[in-house]
Amino acid sequence: MKEGWGRRRWWEFRQGHTVxxxxxxxxxxxxxxxxxxxIERVTFFKDLVPELWIFALMFILVYVPAAILxxxxxxxxxxxxxxxxINQQNPVLAKMIRTLLDVQTGKASQEEIEDFRxxxxxxxxxxxx
Amino acid sequence: MVFQKKILREFxxxxxxxxxxxxxxxxxxxxxxxxTYNFLIxxxxxxxxxxxxxxxxxxxxxxLYIPVSILIGRWHSNTQIHVDMExxxxxDPILARMIRTLLDVQTGKASQEEIEDFRxxxxxxxxxxxxxx
Lengths: 129, 133
What we know:
Chain A is mostly helical. Chain A contains 5 helices and no strands. Chain A has helices spanning 5-37, 43-48, 52-88, 91-105, 110-125. The longest helix of chain A has 37 residues, at 52-88. Chain A is elongated, with a radius of gyration of 25 Å. Chain B is mainly alpha-helical and 133 residues long. Chain B starts with a helix and ends in a 7-residue tail after the last helix.
């Protein structure tokens, strides 16, 4: 499939932004807001964390391993639940698999096969419009 | 009524896509620029001499951010996505069952009962008659 140059760059920009750089922006936002609006204004916290860079370092040292551990737990326990729920709500995939099964077992009529093939062709050719 | 509901749900989906894929990028940029400029650059003697105005900071940020993001995204598309997909596919029991049953039908391993059970379960998904979550 040939997509436009601009659309490919837009996809890459979004991948770079949403998967990687957004973390940096969000971390900086959080660190600055939390430090300037909370830590600097409360003496107890200010004594604990006297400098912005110390807070930034402490935050990253705690946050990154915590995120990795949570992500690992998510993959091992939660991801399976999510893919199951998503696939259970995917009638198009179910139709595709059911029709392939019916073709294989001889249950599908010629008309049904043709309708299914037309549907696939419409999906396949949509980007050419 | 059902048709109207579907239209509303499609609008809700379109709105979410517009927000999540496009507009949220602008919101994030504005947040970052305002917060960083006001809480970090403004009042800092060294940074303020280089970035005396917020619009200068915004332009420099965008000029650097967009190409860096494209380069990282290009690297991600070429090297990381297949890892993500692999992890997801290994945690996708429904798709695995679908493909395995098709394979078993092809190789003659699937019993008639198994085929019927499987057909009923995909038919339920197709017609959205599956058990409520």
